[in-house]
Amino acid sequence: MSTFAKPENALKRAEELINVGQKQDALQALHDLITSKRHRNWQKTLEKIMFKYVELCVEMRKGRYAKDGLIQYRIVCQQVNVTSLEEVIKHFMHLSTEKAEQARSQAQALEEALDVDDLEADKRPEDLMLSYVSGEKGKDRSDRELVTPWFKFLWETYRTVLEILRNNSKLEALYAMTAHRAFQFCKQYKRTTEFRRLCEIIRNHLVNLNKYRDQRDRPDLSAPESLQLYLDTRMEQLKIATELELWQEAFRSVEDIHGLMCMVKKTPKPSLMVIYYAKLTEIFWISSSHLYHAYAWLKLFALQKNFNKNLSQKDLQLIASSVVLAALSVTPYDNTRGASHIELENEKERNLRMANLIAFNLDPKSDGREVLSRSSLISELVSKGVMNCVTQEVKDLYNLLEHEFLPLDLASKVQPLLIKISKVSGKLASASSVPEIQLSQYVPALEKLTTLRLLQQVSQVYQTMKIQSLSKMIPFFDFSVVEKIFVDAVRQNFISLKVDHMKGVVMFGNQGLEADELRDHLSTFAELLNKARAQMYPPAKKSSKLAEILPGLSETVDKEHKRLLARKSIIEKRKEEQEKQLLEMEREEETKRLRLQKLTEEAEQKRLAAEYEQRKNQRILKEIEERELEEAQAMLQEAEKRGKKKGKKPIIEGEKVTKQTLLELARTEQMRERQEMEKKLQKLAKTMDYLERAKREEEAPLIEGAFQRRLVEEKVLHEREHQQEVELSKLRHEGDLKEKHRLSRMLENKNIFQERVLSRRQSEYNRMRAEAREQMEQLKKAHKEAREAKRKLLYYLRREEERQRRAREEEEIRKREEEEIRKKEEAERKAKLDEIAEKQRQREREIEERARLQREALLGKAAEPRPFDLGGARPAEPQTAAPAAAAAAAAAPTPGKYVPRHRRTEGLSQAPPSDPDRWGSGRGDDRGGDRWRSDRGGGSRPTTWSSSRTR
After folding, report:
1. 371 near 360, Cβ under 8 Å?
2. Which residues of the chain fall below pLDDT 50?
3. Which residue ranges have biased composition labelled Basic and acidic residues (predicted)?
4. What is the secondary structure of 453-471 as a DSSP string?
5. Quick one: CA dihedral 218, 221, 225, 228, positive or negative?
6. Of 81, 332, 645, 768, which residue is least crowded by CB atoms under 10 Å?
7. Phi/psi at 438 (nearest 5 deg)?
8. What residues are paired with 507 via a beta bridge?
9. Under a CB-based contact definition with an 8 Å cutoff, are residues 378 and 327 in contact?
10. What pTM does this model have?
11. Inter-CA distances, 700 with 245, 706, 707, Å
């Protein structure tokens, strides 16, 4: 590896090697200098070295060397002088293009020379075999060897430049220009493979740009200039794709444009959107997507009408006619009938995708077919006033196909309109981006639509029809084509018919209960009855039990909801404030970092600039001195050569020569030579003037004579041609008179034949009219019977509802009567029970009264004195006193047992007064007497008075 102290030394060394024919060594020397880390500071000499370097790379077709050198040079001048890199790249592309054009101009057969499938592929095996088998190469092979390598190198040049400029925000314009030139290269030479690769390369560049957008010097797509450049590049890509008929790549380009618009959230200029929708119409038409094609035309019409101020009424009418015809070309039935669930999901996803491309926003949860449909499109055309801008033929065609009911004359009335429409075409003068409009492209689809409408209308009127009659009614196609059309329509359940080729008839109408008219008949009828019943007997509104139980619940819920909303808003505000504070802190830190970095870079740039200016001044002074010395030596040598040619001696000797002396002598010699040259030129100009004047004087009479002779010849020729025309006219007139006389004899027969045909057609018309009238009468009769049956059914239903209502009312009355009887019986039973209870209580009171009287009687007898046995035995009582004693014992108070006061007073009042000296007084003496009796009794238990209470 060679090392040079200064870049100028490497440049001089390379020039010396080039002069001796060693270009590879010169290229290697420059490559070593460029890739060296010693020379990373940009200077003007490096730019000169790069110019020489790319010239060598182009001349030797060294694409790898060129790419390495440009990458290294980009690193050197990225932050210092990007313009230098731009100039070098432009020079590189200019040289490559110039070499390729030179090679192409040398080849006589370009198409044979470029008959290569892939410019990046190596030499094919058959070429190697031919090179070894054939001794002499033909002209085609020589052209191929001459042109193809240069075009390969040019293609490699475009790829290299795009790779180098892909992430440089300062060279976006050069990147876009390179992409446009590469597109034009693919278009000019029909390079479809390279075009696909170029689109993929640009697409990957954009993906990487979005992936690493935070890196330094990356283009900012939010800037209007950058966005416009990228959109222009994609629009050019879309144009070239459609011109090369690469429809798949064109559709991907459309998706790229749509993705770019969604990425920046900004609508491009209307001029670009016009190109976008114009290309979409071509793509959808080629893919037979007539519905999307019509929607694209509708968007294009809206853009042209709203934003194109130069649009004339004729151009607007032509665009509106295209929109309406495109909408009518859509098949009037759904092609996804009977499809599987996966197919329906794919169709839904496809509709959403296409709707986004055409700028129609759909709900992903809804069915996209309900929005993007033929019916909604036609209704939108009517609502937006497109029908008011179309030609009269298109308007008549629309009314015939969508609103009129003419089963027998539909095709005959549509056919002349289609003939007129097929002749309408033209290039729009005020909309250059719109392709040439050819309304004839819609004629086949409109003929198919007319056939479907005719079959649909005929199926509503006729049950059977002959194939021959049906074929006459459809003049567009043969019956085999018509059969294919209605087979597809029957499969999609648009119409219902059968073909019997043995009988030669077509049978219309459904023959079973699975027809669309009968399938949902009962359910529809039930729904209508429910609606009618709800209107006649509206349901009573039930009061809310919750509102009765909790009257303040709604207010509480509202207050709680408002409190939660307020709390949520406070939390959100706090989060936003915290995020703002964090962002502000990050922004301040970033600002400080950028400020510090900017100051560092400015100081470094100032230092580099000062060093560069110092080196530049020194280099300039040195170059001026060297140049002056070289000029002086060159002037000396030139003066010596002129002196030798003229036989003069040298003016001065070489030893005595000084720079100032040589400059003075050279100026003097130049002035003298210039004066001599001016004198020679004046003399030559004078000689040329005299010569030209003499030539004109000599040729003037000759030109006049030739003109007079030409007049005479043309006059004779005119008279001869006029005479011939008169004779031919007479002959044609005589022949026409003879033909008229010959045909006049057939006039009577022609009139007879005409009357016969008219009478036959009149009779056929009368017969068909009578049949139609009879069928109408039958239909009226059938409708009348159906209405009568419907009225009877309604009457029966009303009677049945009335009967059910009366039955419900009687049942309610019966239930109320039974409830009243039950309540009455319950009251009587309760009264009887109360009476029985009252009697029972009365008896109990009587029993208690008798018991009380008995107790009182017993207490009165127990008050008398009783004799005791001193020997400790029980007192002797008569047998009759036992019940009285039991009653007295029951009435007397027992120790530890509560006795009511009224009973105590009653006992005391009935008892006689006792002797206090004999028995003692008080309850304690009685207990003492009892204890004495117990002791005297020899341990027997004391005798107490006890009795059970008798009720």
Report:
1. yes
2. 1, 108-114, 126, 129-139, 360-370, 511-514, 648-656, 863, 865-897, 905-951
3. 802-855, 915-938
4. HHHHHHHHH-SEEEHHHHH
5. positive
6. 645
7. -120, 105
8. 464, 498
9. yes
10. 0.50
11. 61, 10, 11
